[in-house]
Amino acid sequence: MTLDRGQLENILERLPSLTVGLIGDLFLDRYFEIDPDRTEVSIETGLDAYQVVRVRNQPGALGTVMNNLAALGVGRLVPITVIGEDGLGDDLMRALRSIPVEETGILRSDTRLTPTYLKPLVMENGQPPRELNRLDVRSREPLSPEWRRRVSEELSRRFAEVDGWIVLDQIDQRDEGVLHADVRETLGNETSRHPEIPVIIDSRKHLGAYAYGSLKGNEHEFRLAAGCDDVEEAVRRLGMRTGRPAFATCGARGICVAESDKRISWVPARVVSGPIDIVGAGDSATAALLCAMLSGVDARCAAAFANLVASITIRQLGTTGTATPAQIRREWESAGV
């Protein structure tokens, strides 16, 4: 691990004073906990009717990043997004109120569905939760020009007010999410206008659409965006394009980092034993990377901090995990560094 005690404490002590801006796709994660012993047979269809004994609502996608930032202790979160003017959106707003979120940039449209992941979980005694097929709810067309304008105006208005930005491009279909081409153009302009403000961009399918900021994704996403099979070459190419560090998460192998001087480094993952749940691990790494960068450490130390945080979140089963400063300190000490 390339993170010493002083660097770790410097990162953690800075967190409460930070203001982090976020832009992208905000989802509601709704978990349905099913008791298999209570399953009934539907008279109408003859099919099993699963009996839900608990419903949990949790912010997802951009909300997962916000949850991680809040757990880390970041003092103020400034999201910019569009959700629906519907019941799911109401539940999402209630779920956000337990964390330090400014709500003014969460725009609500009566022509959009609130993006929602419906996650049925079978809860069996002595076993990790078993997830059934997920149901996804969201609008399947681009934001209207009016809503794209409103998002871009909010982004320009707030860009210089924060210490750093996280960009989450969650939706596979290009231009169906918040980060439409018009919004990406505004983001690029603001990033050029304020080069002192770190911007981390995490995109499932469209990393190649961004020529600015620090790109972050998994190794498959980097290969796709760079058009090559070798992850080191992919990270090098995309890092050179933006002129900023780039980070490819590679599971148990750790994070492949392209530093600003074009060097490629591997920062090993923390070894974890027992059952794991990787849902949300990438989002926890994104949050950790920005927090570390804002403390002034180099790209390799930022990646080491991200690995440390992710090693905690993946051990939280049946939910999207987070990591607190106390957990991070304990995990760092257990690593014997």
What do you see in this structure?
- This protein is about 35% helix and about 25% strand.
- The chain is α/β, with parallel strands linked by helices and about 325 residues long.
- The strands form three sheets. Strands 7-6-1-11-12-13-14-15-16 form a nine-stranded mixed β-sheet, sandwiched between helices. Strands 2, 5, 8, 9 and 10 form a five-stranded mixed β-sheet that branches.
- The chain starts with a helix and ends with a helix.
The count of helical stretches stands at 10
CATH C-level class is: Alpha Beta
Class by alpha and beta content:
alpha/beta
**Biggest sheet, strands in spatial order?**
7-6-1-11-12-13-14-15-16
Do you know the CATH topology? Answer: UDP-N-acetylmuramoyl-L-alanine:D-glutamate ligase
How would you state the average pLDDT, rounded?
A: 92
Could you tell me the strand content as a percent range? 15-25%
Radius of gyration (CA) equals 20 Å
